[in-house]
Amino acid sequence: MSEAPRDIENLIEMMAKLPGLGPRSARRAVLHLIRKRALLLTPLADAMHQVAISARECLNCGNVGVTDICEICASEKRGNGQICVVEDVADLWAMERGKAFAGRYHVLGGTLSALDNVGPEDLRIPRLLDRVATEGVNEVILALNATVDGQTTAHYIAEQLEGTEVAVTSLAQGVPIGGELDYLDDGTISAALKARKSF
Amino acid sequence: MSEAPRDIENLIEMMAKLPGLGPRSARRAVLHLIRKRALLLTPLADAMHQVAISARECLNCGNVGVTDICEICASEKRGNGQICVVEDVADLWAMERGKAFAGRYHVLGGTLSALDNVGPEDLRIPRLLDRVATEGVNEVILALNATVDGQTTAHYIAEQLEGTEVAVTSLAQGVPIGGELDYLDDGTISAALKARKSF
């Protein structure tokens, strides 16, 4: 890709490494930014510098914010004894968009994976057990992805919490709202059938 | 999207406006950047500032570079009397990757469009006619996209050059290398058939 000058090529290569972008879309994005550089490129660079300075992970739950303790952990209102365990900050944001959960979160930062050599101490599992012991928690809701690694991690956490007073629950599995049976995989359909309830 | 702090939300919104990214992929990209902010976010912001300062459009052809006259226009070697007319800098880069063209370029910066109110003076068409008159050009190759607007623009330019000594050509249309007939649209197949040549 030697057709653009070094500076620009360099920017394209960095953009191409972002999740969701490839070399072609990175080129398009960079050309778009250059065309409107006063309006878009400089403000975007400034916004990135700003976030690079201000962003930090919550020391308590792992959420991304601009303070050492995130807004949710700092809010008295959210301390209702429920902790929702998610893999990733994106999952936390998705839950918050749903506006259905009023407790606090715990972001693991990944899942256990024998293949990638990720053990409990690489995630925030010890910190979760600490919180359960000290924060007056009465329910841990496992909102992990319905993948093999996600479910392995859920089982591991449930095991660690066995023998405590804490209720361990997980998100219901079934047909998504607006979902069409014809487009659902067999696993989802059979899980929804098993968990059927009176109408 | 009030689940992230203002600074981060702001960055996500700006990223989401880039071509090829939407709100969801912008969120993923920003979280990825925050997770590796020393390694990725700060260098990316620096690279953007660098390009915002250094990037400029070639005064002659409209190519994007870091000098007032781009490398291609400045190179004696490329002054072979051929000008390849493209819609966009991305098209110029695509031609350069092909390494098949040894002349200079002219980037229109779009296509004529009655609907969007884009006339010849909004593109670099007057500048093209100037160059043809003064740069010792003997061939203008119209490498415009095979869309309605692209072809309208090609016809308009060809008309403007009528009566001059300059040969006006366009890229051949036909079956792409490695293309399978079954996957080609009818227009391409019939164009390729009309332009068939002895084997």
UniProtKB/TrEMBL annotation, chains A, B:
<dbReference type="GO" id="GO:0008270">
    <property type="term" value="F:zinc ion binding"/>
</dbReference>
<dbReference type="GO" id="GO:0003677">
    <property type="term" value="F:DNA binding"/>
</dbReference>
<feature type="zinc finger region" description="C4-type">
    <location>
        <begin position="58"/>
        <end position="73"/>
    </location>
</feature>
<keyword id="KW-0233">DNA recombination</keyword>
<dbReference type="Pfam" id="PF21175">
    <property type="entry name" value="RecR_C"/>
</dbReference>
<keyword id="KW-0479">Metal-binding</keyword>
<dbReference type="InterPro" id="IPR000093">
    <property type="entry name" value="DNA_Rcmb_RecR"/>
</dbReference>
<keyword id="KW-0863">Zinc-finger</keyword>
<comment type="function">
    <text>May play a role in DNA repair. It seems to be involved in an RecBC-independent recombinational process of DNA repair. It may act with RecF and RecO.</text>
</comment>
<dbReference type="Pfam" id="PF02132">
    <property type="entry name" value="RecR_ZnF"/>
</dbReference>
<dbReference type="GO" id="GO:0006310">
    <property type="term" value="P:DNA recombination"/>
</dbReference>
<dbReference type="InterPro" id="IPR023627">
    <property type="entry name" value="Rcmb_RecR"/>
</dbReference>
<dbReference type="Pfam" id="PF21176">
    <property type="entry name" value="RecR_HhH"/>
</dbReference>
<keyword id="KW-0227">DNA damage</keyword>
<keyword id="KW-0234">DNA repair</keyword>
<protein>
    <recommendedName>
        <fullName>Recombination protein RecR</fullName>
    </recommendedName>
</protein>
<dbReference type="Pfam" id="PF13662">
    <property type="entry name" value="Toprim_4"/>
</dbReference>
<comment type="similarity">
    <text>Belongs to the RecR family.</text>
</comment>
<keyword id="KW-0862">Zinc</keyword>
<feature type="domain" description="Toprim">
    <location>
        <begin position="81"/>
        <end position="176"/>
    </location>
</feature>
<dbReference type="GO" id="GO:0006281">
    <property type="term" value="P:DNA repair"/>
</dbReference>
<dbReference type="InterPro" id="IPR015967">
    <property type="entry name" value="Rcmb_RecR_Znf"/>
</dbReference>
<dbReference type="InterPro" id="IPR006171">
    <property type="entry name" value="TOPRIM_dom"/>
</dbReference>
<dbReference type="InterPro" id="IPR034137">
    <property type="entry name" value="TOPRIM_RecR"/>
</dbReference>
